[in-house]
Amino acid sequence: MGLNCSREDNKTVFAQWQRCEVATMALRTSSSFLSSTSSSCSSSLCFRVNPLLFSTQRRYTVSLSRSRRFFAMSAAAAESDGIFTSPEVAKSFDFSNEERIYKWWESQGYFKPNIDKGGDPFVVPMPPPNVTGSLHMGHAMFVTLEDIMIRYNRMKGRPTLWLPGTDHAGIATQLVVERMLAAEGVKRADLGRDEFTKRVWEWKQKYGGTITNQIKRLGASCDWTRERFTLDEQLSRAVVEAFIRLHEKGLIYQGSYMVNWSPNLQTAVSDLEVEYSEEPGTLYYIKYRVAGGSKNDYLTIATTRPETLFGDTAVAVNPQDERYAKFIGKQAIVPLTFGRHVPILSDKYVDKDFGTGVLKISPGHDHNDYLLARKLGLPILNVMNKDGTLNEVAGLYAGLDRFEARKKLWSDLEESGLAVKKEAHTSRVPRSQRGGEIIEPLVSKQWFVSMEPLAERALEAVSKGELTIMPERFEKIYNHWLSNIKDWCISRQLWWGHRIPVWYVSGKDCEEEYIVARSHREALSKAQEKYGKNVEIYQDPDVLDTWFSSSLWPFSTLGWPDESAEDFKRFYPTSVLETGHDILFFWVARMVMMGIEFTGTVPFSNVYLHGLIRDSQGRKMSKTLGNVIDPLDTIAEYGTDALRFTLALGTAGQDLNLSMERLTSNKAFTNKLWNAGKFILRNLPHQDDTLAWEALLAHKFDKVESVVKLPLPECWAVSKLHVLVDEVTASYEKLFFGDVGREIYDFFWADFADWYIEVSKARLYHSGDHSVASVSQAALLYIFGSILKLLHPFMPFVTEELWQALPSRQEALIVSAWPPTSLPRDIDSIKKFENLQALTRAIRNVRAEYAVEPAKLISASIVANPDVIQYISGEREVLALLSRLDLGNVNFAEAPPGDANQSVHVVASEGLEAYLPLSDMVDISAEVQRLSKRLVKMQAEYDGLMARLSSSSFVEKAPEDIVRGVREKAAKAEEKLTLTKNRLNFLKSKVLIAN
Fold first, then answer.
1. What are the C-alpha distances in Å from 700 to residues 52, 686, 712?
2. Which are the contacts of 274, defined by CB distance < 8 A and separation ≥ 6?
3. Is 277 helix (H, G, I), strand (E, B) or coil?
4. Are 495 and 196 in contact (CB under 8 A)?
5. What pLDDT digit, counting tens, does each position of 774-814 carry?
6. What are the E-state strand segments in 518-587?
7. Do 164 and 238 touch, CB atoms closer than 8 A?
């Protein structure tokens, strides 16, 4: 029930309520404030004695039952559509509401760019995840960061577009389907190309949407109506057009060069799809006899792959290696090749300190040997078939698998006396990222793009400031890679992907006579024009590297090559590309090159690079280590908002160590927000109280004159908020998301929840004028609503749910206006309230030091100059509440009190002190006895530690970490001993004075 009070009853009522409040505080720790199922003010005892507002002109009554009835009605209205839940009817935010909220946002069209707003569009192309993918923490990272950018700019009023899509992932998808077919006992070759690709499309339709739905679960506010797949008709047309234009400029050519070959997948793979690992292996030492020499004339080579010796075309030594100088210019006999001779050459490339200092050059099977052979003009011999077996060049070993051939070859070398020895050796082994097999360097006929002309313009884009890379240190890496770029192998020997738009004429030389065209019909027409009507053509069986289509992503998704398309004209170039720094070279740089080449413009103005997500120990997540953290499991336990907030607090470009402790802490942050909302809603006027609402809504905070007229705590809180808005907005603009998160977190927790909400209780439950409570209600509503706006891009679900419960809302939070910057703030009030805070902290510290019970109210004399006394005494109710002082015994003066020698003296700040009567806090005699006994025990403990340290046998013989630990314990014990002695002497002096 409510309580009616007149002005004369104020002090009595406040004292009653304060005792109730401090009793409640005694039951909880300061860190758990607002984390229980209901705030302290909802205690039945408190509400029986809590007048919400008082007035000398009229009786102003608000009861708990009426308050709850109002908010129950509000909650029922909010829940009528089954979307939102008010904090008034739920003790904490329900994570299961997230999906309902997301579907509501999408159904309302909030994810689509609002073109009618005008202004400069903000566009982010999503790095398209593989259609075979399943959500991992890397996805969670990029989705979080991009969604933060999108939601912030949407609230800033810009037409905002986030382009979603998926990549057909040629190798990964084909491998998945081949494994599925293998389980049915079917091979790809058994089906043929058309039937196989049909089966892949069927798989894509059934399973390909998994990753998209999981990304939605993270809150990604993409415009899903514009979702694209890299094999969609429009994007496929763009890929063909790009190939043709590059070929017409002479930038695409066909040739036989060294590539990374996957024998199992039967295709070339890119550098990005090769992972290197340090693995134990064997170094084989083999004799190469010198032709025409004696039995003792031979060179010993050391190799990890002896089976490639059939492809040797030379043996090389360092020209400064005196051991082999006499053999330079002669011929060596390749073992087990029936006497095949190769030249013995000298080249400074050879490391004379590795192995024996003699290098076998197998240019068909080693990247470095290939480059050396081209420099020296050596022929190239390929000894391996595409499936990893040896070919006819290997003679008797033809048909054997490469690893079987290695074993047999070594055995035969031992029998022939050419095997010297073998020893354990750790090698850097290249393995397929997809299949895990060892990659084979192999010379193969492929299609390539000449990169140097494209790279020059991409380098200029950064140097001229047309493209900004964040963090800035990655510019050097970008420049280095483009300055040393190699031609790009773009063909893959797969059936799933964009078929290379090249046709060959039957009966003609494939390398000389081919036709590049946009379709089979166009190719046939060109062939007939050149060779006659009866000509037959067939298409190149290879497909293009997946990265080729991905490099066209930012502009092909917007309609290119139709540059008159509305989306292309409106949204290209895009604003920000956000992605992991590990694919800076392979994807980002190629998009820059392609964008400039085909549109004449850099495809995005900013590149934002994030790091890897590692476990709490800094290790890379892997199934082998068992440290993989599943985002969906994390969401189920901690909520999407806590996960997003945790991921976003990292530093751009730096790897982030993800721990359960951080997630737990940020889940508590979500709960803290929820309970703050609960407190505010429960302390607003009844919906029928028109006068109270008129008074509340009359308070404005956007004018200097309105801010400076506010009472000190409100002026401080609003001013601090306005400073925060400026800082946070600046950090958002710079993409310093870690700073944004920390700035909001610190303000909400340290300033708003820990201080202003506590201050507001003095306004709400003790006020001689209802206008004082009204301004506090208005400030609570204004500050909390602003916090929700600032935090929404990070934590969209809980902020939207809380926003929907606020009576002041006018539209969805996701499309609400961003708080304006440069709002008024009173720096003087901030400093004054900081003095009040310092005084409160000092008193709290003394209470803690003397173990004063939380429910016990104590007296205090506050000493300061007149100006300080004026504003501190003006907030005596606030000081009494926060410091748990007896309001009737709080005195203000310019000089110390007469009983100062019986008080604890604390200095809060320069010119602001407090004297706390010792007798109010502790029974001095009892405390002296207690401390005296404790001091004896502490002294004994300290003496024991020092005795150990004074023993030379202990110090010299004990392990160093044990000795160090004892020293640390002794130092801490000495510190505690000194503090206890000082406190005991202080108390004894007070007893003497009293006597």
1. 21, 21, 16
2. 260, 430, 431, 432, 433, 439
3. strand
4. yes
5. 999 999 999 999 999 999 999 999 999 999 999 978 899 99
6. 537-539, 543-544, 574-580
7. no
pLDDT computed for residue 825 by the predictor = 97
pLDDT at residue 81 in the model: 59
Q: How far apart are CA 778 and CA 773, in angstroms?
A: 9
* Closest listed residue to residue 829, CA positions, set 721, 911, 733, 921: 721
- Average pLDDT of the chain, as a whole number: 89
The residue count for the chain: 995
CB atoms within 10 A of CB 235: 20
- How far lies 134's CA from each of 210, 463, 545, 627, 759, in Å? 7, 38, 22, 17, 48
216, amino acid identity: K
Q: State the pLDDT confidence band at 771, using cuts at 50, 70 and 90.
A: confident
Quick one: which of 346, 356, 343, 348 has its CA closest to 286? Answer: 356
- In the numeric block, the tokens 């935090």 are attached to 791
Token pair belonging to 335: 């073992």
User: Number of C-alpha atoms within 13 angstroms, CB side, residue 278?
Assistant: 3
The closest of 585, 578, 581, 592 to 735, measured between CA atoms, is 578
Helix (H, G, I), strand (E, B) or coil at 462: helix
Q: How far apart are CA 377 and CA 521, in angstroms?
A: 43
User: Which two three-digit tokens encode residue 609?
Assistant: 């690079």
- With a cut of 80, say whether residue 906 has pLDDT above it: yes
User: How many other C-beta atoms are found inside a 10 Å radius of the C-beta of residue 200?
Assistant: 25
Dig out the tokens for 197 from the structure. Answer: 């690709």
d(CA 890, CA 625): 62
Q: How many CB atoms lie within 10 A of CB 198?
A: 12
Backbone angles phi, psi at 989, to 5 degrees: -65, -35
pLDDT score, position 625: 82
Contact 219, 147 (CB under 8 A): yes
Q: Decide if pLDDT at 24 tops 60.
A: no
Measured CA to CA, the distance from residue 872 to residue 869 in angstroms comes to 5
Q: Is the predicted pLDDT of residue 608 greater than 90, yes or no?
A: yes
